[in-house]
Specification:
With 288 residues, the chain is an alpha/beta fold. It is built from eleven helices and eleven strands. The protein has two domains: 68 residues, Orthogonal Bundle (Helicase, Ruva Protein, domain 3); 186 residues, Vaccinia Virus protein VP39 (Rossmann fold), CATH 3.40.50.150.
């Protein structure tokens, strides 16, 4: 095995290549991918970067950098993404868990629940996190993608909640039976005319079915709200992640469905990110 140079030199050159390709946060990505290629935790890289790297590891690192230059997300390259203090498996079949979505988790955890459902569960990051945080709860995850459900099951097993999680291939709450004291969803909310503004990492690599409704971005909220009011227990909560311009529109849809305590909640950057509502002691009459 021959030597390809020090880790410091390889990371420095990789950073330059990523910067030239217009990749944001090039230095961070270079270090992260070098950590993955070498199997050394990022917290220890400073100690190991001066060491000489063998050709085999350098070749693995170079292949990762080439893929990142093509704007493939780091999470797809490593197969992992951190979310709410846990690591989740990620593939091209699921939406990449984002820090913004942690706001939904925080809101859901503000009140007790025992039976929940996550609509469009994807990687399962919301469902698995909530079940892990509330050990006495049980949960269901629905998704139209069988491949996504496979990822969610694996994440549920990894984090020790598979025995309390049920996964169903379904269109939102279609064919769902029973009632829940918590219904959550991060549905596709990007309007079709907003798709052109997405970064290449999102537009070219993430499943479009999980990004957009192909219309005004509100289609799935309308559907889920209509279904959810028949499945919320008295005092049960419905909580959505939203796009930062959709707070008022989604709140109005919830009020029109006779849900109460409708609240728009900002994320850590102050942008509208979550809308929460509650079924207070009764279920609205179903209209023909």
């Amino acid at each position: 095995m021959t030597a390809a140079g020090t880790g410091s030199a390889l990371v420095r050159e990789a950073t330059r290549r990523l910067q030239n390709a217009g990749v944001p946060d090039a230095a961070r990505d270079a270090r992260h991918l070098f950590s993955f290629a070498t199997g050394v935790d990022c917290s220890r890289l400073t100690l190991t970067l001066p060491e000489v790297v063998c050709d085999d590891v350098a070749a693995i690192f170079d292949a990762l950098i080439v893929r990142r230059i093509a704007r493939e997300p780091v999470s797809h390259l490593t197969g992992r993404r951190a979310f709410y203090g846990r690591e989740f498996k990620v593939t091209a079949d699921v939406l990449d868990p984002r820090p913004d979505t942690e706001t939904l988790v925080e809101v859901a955890l503000r009140s007790h629940f025992t039976k929940m459902i996550d609509l469009g569960t994807g990687s399962g990051c919301i469902l698995v996190t909530l079940l892990a945080e509330v050990p006495q709860s049980i949960g269901f995850g629905t998704d139209l993608s069988g491949a996504a459900l496979d990822v969610a099951r694996e994440n549920a097993e990894t984090h020790g909640v598979l025995d309390r999680a049920t996964f169903v291939c379904a269109d939102w709450m279609e064919s769902t039976k029973g009632s829940f004291d918590l219904i959550v969803s991060n549905p596709p909310y990007i309007a079709v005319d907003e798709m052109v503004g997405l970064s290449p990492e999102v537009a070219n690599w993430e499943p479009h079915m999980a990004l957009t409704d192909g219309a005004d971005g509100l289609t799935h909220y309308r559907t889920i709200i209509k279904q959810a009011v028949s499945h919320l227990m008295p005092d049960g909560r419905l909580i959505f992640e939203i796009g930062p311009t959709q707070g008022q529109a989604v709140a109005d849809l919830m009020r029109a469905a006779q849900l109460q305590h409708v609240t728009v909640i900002p994320d850590i950057d102050g942008r509208d990110r979550v809308v929460s509502a509650q079924m207070i002691g009764f279920k609205p009459e179903r209209r023909a």
